[in-house]
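Full entry
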Amino acid sequence: MASETTARPATDESVRTAPIYHLVLLNDNDHTYAYVVEMLGRVLGHGREKAFALARLVDTQGRAIVETAGFDRVKRHQQRIHGYGPDPRVEHCQGSMSAVVEEAP
């Protein structure tokens, strides 16, 4: 007779999850809503409605969490935001928006 192995359910102590991180877009006065909506769509795949809501949060609160994921993913998207370039709609705009990576609680 073959021995049977009974699977045990995982306990909190035996399950370890990788930490997750927030990608936080920071406000400035050098980029238009249209730029933010376009950039969030191209970099993160957000639809226009979600991207506009996030643009409003950045504008009114000074920052907005635009993604929560593993470190490599948010770091890659942070680099894409930083490399997106200036807003062609604003003559004095010199470069991309800024975003920071923060560990999620």
Remarks:
- The chain has a mean pLDDT of 90.
